[in-house]
């Protein structure tokens, strides 16, 4: 069990991901902001939350790092 890294122990932040500024902004708007401020996303079109995000592209472009950042933010309990 010592080889297992729990999601709460990943510790990756948006600042740890190099470049990809446009992608980081989109993920913040779609995932992080609704978790931190659910009161702003209760009415109208914004009330229909995103059900998932598909990260695609060639290997080595930062998809896994972005996924870890989002998972870390969710695990930390920003709701």
What this model shows, in words?
The protein has 79 residues and is mainly α. It is built from 2 helices and no strands. Helix 1 runs parallel beside helix 2. The mean pLDDT is 78.
Overview in brief:
By secondary structure, the chain is mainly alpha-helical.
* β-sheet strand percentage: under 5%
Shape: globular
Mean pLDDT figure: 78
Report the uncertain regions. Answer: none
What is the number of beta strands? 0
Salient structural properties:
mainly alpha; globular
Would you spell out the secondary-structure blueprint of this structure?
Blueprint: H1 21-36, H2 63-75
Helix pairs in contact: 1-2
């Amino acid at each position: 069990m010592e080889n297992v890294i729990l999601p709460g122990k990943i510790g990756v932040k948006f600042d740890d991901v190099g470049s990809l500024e446009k992608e980081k902004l989109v993920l913040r708007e779609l995932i992080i902001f609704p978790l931190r401020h659910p009161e702003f996303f209760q009415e109208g079109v914004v009330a229909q939350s995103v059900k998932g995000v598909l990260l695609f592209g060639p290997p080595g472009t930062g998809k896994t790092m972005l996924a870890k950042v989002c998972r870390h933010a969710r695990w930390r309990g920003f709701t």
